[in-house]
Amino acid sequence: MKQNQRILVVDDEQDLLEILKFNLETEGYEVATASSAEEALQMDIASFSLLLLDVMMGGMSGFAMARKLKEKPTTANVPIIFLTARDTENDTVTGFNLGADDYISKPFSLREVMVRVRAVLRRTATSADEGEPQVLSYQGIIMNLDKKTVSIEGEDVPFTKTEFELLNLLLSERGRVFSRQELIERIWPKDVLVLDRTVDVNITRLRKKIGPFSKCIVTRLGFGYYFDA
């Protein structure tokens, strides 16, 4: 077992429960399953290292279960990855507002799930060992705001200070369109003359750095740029 890392998978699709359980156990995790939020809440949630929690279930929703867990000191810090067939901005925002550590939309690849499970467990293990680090993430993008590092799909990628600050701002306020002037005012020093073209060049570089997520940085013609989750 991976240092007694226990994962609870909660989903009302029995086939999916079995597939996730098999693959997670193959990776070396100890895995328990529940087919409803009500069943899961009867279990010792605090003993798990991570929850994979379906949003849309027949009884209590995953969001409602998460709210209950976050209200209790004993379970408030248990990491949660939401699994859902719903893929709207409002659902994603709701999930992260509830303290989700990640959000995976169905259908998903098992490889994607394993990568993100490892990423969340690695972050939470680091938090326990070194004190809570400031981490900002979206799917396979993980920014450590303390160490000023970025990893893309598990690979460390070097960022300039400007690229790091741009990604930090866009990722922190997903969906909000920033004009070039706003980006200049928020990112660059006040005493430096920055042209709109400089913003465009840095955005182009940033897209290249984040590779498979490059399309998430969207150009809204006539307005500016935003991060589309």
Characterize the structure shown.
- Helix content is 40%, strand content 21%.
- By secondary structure, it is α/β, with parallel strands linked by helices.
- The chain has two domains: 125 residues, Rossmann fold (3-Layer(aba) Sandwich); 85 residues, Arc Repressor Mutant, subunit A, CATH 1.10.10.
- The longest helix has 21 residues.
- The chain is elongated, with a radius of gyration of 19 Å.
How is this structure best summarized?
With 229 residues, the chain is of the alpha/beta class.
In terms of DSSP E residues, the strand content is 15-25%
Assign an overall shape: elongated
Number of domains: 2
Helix-residue proportion = 25-40%
Keywords:
229 residues; alpha/beta; Rossmann fold; Arc Repressor Mutant, subunit A; five-stranded parallel beta sheet; four-stranded antiparallel beta sheet; 11 strands; 40% helix; elongated
